[in-house]
Amino acid sequence: MKRIEAIIRPTKVGRVCAALEGVGHPGPRVSQVEDKSQTSAGYLLRGATYKADLVAKSIVEVIAKDEEAERIINTIREAAFTGENGEGEIFVYAIENAVRIRTGERDEWAI
Length: 111
Fold this sequence. Notes:
Elements: E1 2-8, H1 13-22, E2 29-45, E3 48-64, H2 69-80, E4 88-94
Antiparallel strand pairs: 1-3, 1-4, 2-3
Helix pairs in contact: 1-2
């Protein structure tokens, strides 16, 4: 099993979730975070320039079977793509065990 974690722009969450639903993963976990910007972007507010070191990002997480991981990664990448800097990253982690609390099902049966 794999845990796929995508850190993406908040404006792309709806599109990514819809794309995941289209490939059979309708319930990703979504969290809102702030990410330290690699480039110090500035913004203008009421005539003054301010430095913005923290940028709003969203984390979309999916737990999937090993054989589905590459398809999910490609789906997320295509849905979140803008061609601009700061699109985000996708991380893939191996999951050793999973247990469904209600039924006691384990591993792939629990997801």
